[in-house]
Amino acid sequence: MSNRVKRRFVAGATCPKCQEQDTISLYYENNVEKLECVACGYNEAQTDEKVSAATRTNENVIGIFKPH
To answer: Does residue 51 have a pLDDT over 80?
Structure first.
């Protein structure tokens, strides 16, 4: 038995490889956002660097609390 992945198509998106429009699908696999072109098979995953850059850009650490 396999798990079905719910895919959503991105309206108006153009594939960076084959330049076809409306062929990019977005889905999550193991909590990682992935894109795939159904026309040519191009795929891309959101890397950890992109995730940390998006979530930690304006955050400052004042100090770390260490209880005794």
So the answer is: no
